Amino acid sequence: MHHKKLFAFLLTALSVFLLVGCGGQKKAKENPAAPKNGTAVKVLKGEYIISDNKDEPSSGKGYLALKLRLKNNGSPVRLSSISNFKLKSKSDDELNPVSIYGTGDEFSTISSMELDEDDDSTGYVLFLVDKKSKYTLEVKPTSKKAKEVPKSKVKIDASKYKDNTSQAKDAVSAYVDSVFLNQSDKDDQYEKLLTNELLTEKNSYRRTMRSYLENTVFHSPIVDKAANKMMDQFQTANAEQASVSYQIKEATPTAATVEVTPTVMDLSNVSNVISQTSSNLLKSDKLPEGTTYTQVQRAAKEMVVAKFADVLKQIPARERTSAEIRLVKNGKKWRISTSDYGFKSVRDKFMGQAY
Fold first, then answer.
1. Which of 33, 242, 249, 351 has a CA 20 to 30 Å removed from the CA of 21?
2. Residue 152's domain is classified under what CATH number?
3. 115-140, pLDDT tens digit by residue?
4. In a domain? residue 1
5. In the listed set 162, 180, 201, which residue is the last one of a domain according to the structure?
């Protein structure tokens, strides 16, 4: 009986120092307790990311971001991602954390923190790992009182964590399809991925496009019915011709940046069509006597409006310069930052602007 009690005690003591993390969004099944005088470590979640200021990983590797909860059960300690966190492989090779510093909604890793007794905090550590390998995360804080602090260990199976980086690209693609190209069959995908209110975004785009048509292309107001018909015609024609390239520049648990390179129609040549139509009218012998130049211009514009669908058939799509769209994670979905310069640049190209 004495030996059984001793064996049970040893098993309990061992489990205090060895913690097991979880993959994806699942919670760890093992007890996340830690040494009574050390720092408890629990992996809250983890996922692979793409960083815009880090080299692209080689095949089979990826940047794994682990969100940790740290609770100090002992005397005051300091933690630095550089010196207090290590990822050890089965062959005892050590991986040092990769640091990323951001502001606002930008992703950041733990830089440094101080924990007094019973304090707790959360933060990310980032490692470049082999996606199929198993590791042990070792956390050994530095005591503020020159005391030896126990090391906590968490098992990490890199294959259990998800790579969700493509979701940001899918979200931007859904926005382009539903809002800029008015493809209603893509609206379900939009609602699944984005928190931007769809009808609000569609109305905003069409208001901006109408302003562009009236103030830049035709230099004249256009009645509602004609304007709406023209925008429908343009979005339909653009959807038939357009192609779009998307490249993820950054994708983290908090934000993402997607580079968009559109091949779309350019409406700047419509002014040439108006000028040619006006010139043909002036040369015509069918104009009533006394017709003014202003009246000829108005008539030319009305004619172009009436045959706008045919005019669009003569405008080829061309590749435009790239611009970046910024997204912020909003719960499990994304929110596109529509006030950013990059977004407006992409939007304007899908309205037919030349630049």
1. 249
2. 2.60.40.1240
3. 888 888 899 999 999 999 999 999 98
4. no
5. 162
